[in-house]
Amino acid sequence: MSNSSRIIPEPLKTQSLVSDLKKRLDWGEPALTIIDIRDRDAFNTSHISGAISLPINSLVDRTLINLELTRDLYLYGSTDEQTASAAAQLRTVGYQNVAEVKGGLAAWKASSYPIEGNSTKVA
């Protein structure tokens, strides 16, 4: 597929749908980081394919060490409220491009998008 026929995804939105994130990943030049803010056990059980685990209790410190302030970040947690809280924390310390993935992992799974983890098999 030539670059001219590839659809460029929309710019990062503060409130992003799982389909927005999937389009960005499918674009082939994502330049983003997906952050799962749930605890490590939940992450190990199942998470969005390609996500990294940065639990909310250490999120700001670990993100500041590992990711530049201009990086596009897509966050999801156990609830949209938890995700919004984590996103607000990152914005407060200077992250400019933070998207809250609405519906998180449940919405991602409901759309049959790829997941990883110990329980990725369908019953």
Automatic annotation (TrEMBL):
Domain Rhodanese: 28-117
Molecular function GO labels: transferase activity
Superkingdom of source: Bacteria
Keywords linked to the UniProt accession: Transferase
SUPFAM superfamilies named among the record's database cross-references: Rhodanese/Cell cycle control phosphatase (SSF52821)
Keyword check for Disulfide bond: no
Name of this protein: Rhodanese-related sulfurtransferase
Organism the protein comes from: Hyella patelloides LEGE 07179
Lineage, uppermost ranks: Bacteria, Bacillati, Cyanobacteriota, Cyanophyceae, Pleurocapsales
